[in-house]
Amino acid sequence: MTDRINGFWVALAADTREDDFEATMAAVRMIKGVLAVEPHVTAYSDWVAEQRIRRELIGKLHEALK
């Protein structure tokens, strides 16, 4: 039996101003079966997560170079 999909997430390469993103949101709305497109506002927790990942990667790189 095949699973049913009710939605998916799309990650942008970089934080984008909402007014600069209007054309992209309009294009996604044109895809068959798309019911709604809602932007996700960048939050402080996003920055914290990015910094933690960056620190972890730098630590791994440092260990690899030893």
Keywords:
single chain, 66 residues, mainly alpha, extended
Descriptive overview:
Helix content is 52%, strand content 0%. It is an all-alpha fold. The chain has one domain. The model has no long low-confidence stretch (mean pLDDT 91).
Summed up:
With 66 residues, this protein is mostly helical. Helix content is 52%, strand content 0%.
Q: Mean pLDDT across all residues, rounded?
A: 91
Order of helices and strands: HH
- Indicate the percent of residues in helices: 40-55%
Number of strands: 0
| Low-confidence runs | none
Q: What count of domains describes the coordinates? A: 1
In DSSP terms (H or I, runs of 4 or more residues), the helix count works out at: 2
Shape: extended
The rounded Rg comes to: 18 Å
Tell me the β content.
under 5%
Q: Main sheet?
A: none
- N- to C-terminal distance: 50 Å
Q: Structural class from helices and strands?
A: mainly alpha
